[in-house]
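Discussion board: Methods & Data

I've been asked by a reviewer to show the raw model output for two of the constructs in my manuscript, not just the figures. I'm not sure how much to include, so I'm pasting the format here to get opinions. Each protein appears as its amino acid sequence followed by a line of discrete structure tokens. Is this the kind of thing reviewers expect to see in a supplement, or should I convert it first? Here is construct A:
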Amino acid sequence: MISMYHTVRPEHVAQEMCVLMDWYISQEITVPVLAEFHVKYESIHPFQDGNGRTGRLIFFRECLKNEIVPVVIEDANKNEYLAALKMYREEKRLDKLIALFEKEQRFCFENCKYFI
């Protein structure tokens, strides 16, 4: 699975991460912006291992930091998540990923609203 997303040569990772971070800090943070950040981060593939876990953790943290209902990809939706990443990689379309993140937000909210 790791090589499936690796599109940036290792010697270009630092530069691409700087470009991504410059773009990100200029955005108003929303789920679509976080989805775009996520797929771009995954495409850069900055680490040898753990990129998916790290990317999802960053997404979760940024949701909390920006008072957005967090997203946790349920195991049952893993294939949908991978298909959405593939759609972005092949077609540069985010709609499937955004829809999945919004579905996961509703699931998270319903399961956590007791504590709110």
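Construct B, same format:
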Amino acid sequence: MRPYLLMAVLYLSLAAVTALAAALQIIDVIPFFSGLRWLRVHIITLGGLTQLAFGVLPTLAARRHGEGQPRTRWDIWLTLNLGLLILMIGIPLVNNVLIITGGSLVFTAAGLLVYDLVRLWRSQPARPIQQVDEQPEVRPFYVAAVSFLLVGILAGTGLWFGWGPALGIAAPIEVHVHSNLWGFTALLLAGLITQLYPALTGTSVAWKKLVAPSFWGMAIGATGLVAGPWMEVNALTVGGLVAHSLATAALLANWATPIKRKLTPKSPGLLHILLAYVWFFFPVVVAPLIVFRMGETANEISGSGGPILIYGWILPILYALLPYFLQRWLRPDQPAKAGGTWASLLLIQAGSIVFWVSLFVTTGQSTLRAAAYGLWLASLVPVLYQLWGSLKRLAEESEGSPVITSAPKQRDRENVDLKKQVLNE
């Protein structure tokens, strides 16, 4: 888990650089270069989010039934990060060879992760009924999420191979986007938040039996959202969006109800998560315009509305979860909490609102969008300060403290610490 978390912090830092570049590009301070838009998207999704997924999913899947932390698969880590590095070079250059090579490596790493998750799932012996905790089962979220990631990579890389026509994909870009956002990202975050909810809040979700139907609604909905543009059937796309949105709304109510009932104190980290889903439902509001191509506003939202999902939905959840996992790594014997600050919460919501307004106006549109990216950049500063401060303190403590335990004993102690917290997750 540790090497992935370090890379996730690095990609979150790069997200700040690309947000600054976007703001400067919009107001013509720096020249435009091809691929910047897609690089910004992939830094957060394929960069930060994927690193988090690859790092924590095997651990959470194993610990769900009290198992110790699985060993780091360095072959998967190297394959994933080499592929991402090649993609991050190839995307701005729009270089077919680099994009195909990088996409193929990330696809291979994702396939190995699915295999590992299924193997961990099947290898765990059944536990006596009295030992099974009452937390809902979330591993189907993880396996489904990474499976959709495979589809998204296949469709995305296929853009450069010409696989779209060969596979009968009517709209390859939409298939790629829908697989990655409503499939991989939505299912991954739903599983993580649900599993971590007791540790983050000190209480359980409101209705545990609602988690399984929510999973199936999201999974079926994501399938419809992928199949619709694949086969050019709008009814499947709309039906998938409705099913996915209803299931997500049920899950959101499951998270929000204990907080509304004041069973757990409000914190910027928890509000980062809950308010992020306001922007997740942005496509639902504008879906009729986009699907039925109703005017210039629909074209503008369809073509330029993506940053709302990336910066309004995904990024604030990373603000909450990444510091949490970093705390668990650095201080395994102490309770951890969701990351984020009141300043980051205010700034990222303000940026999303400003960008939303820019989609519906023509006067001052560039200024509004530059301001939105500026606010999103400012929201990154306090979170990155926390993250890099934690890593700096770890390095200073490591330099000043002699190693007095052997590696096997240290690993045993870490496994004991992890098992102490399993009931919280």
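Answer (T.O., handling editor elsewhere):
This is acceptable in a supplement if you add a one-line summary per construct. For B, something like: Residues 365-400 form the longest helix (36 residues).
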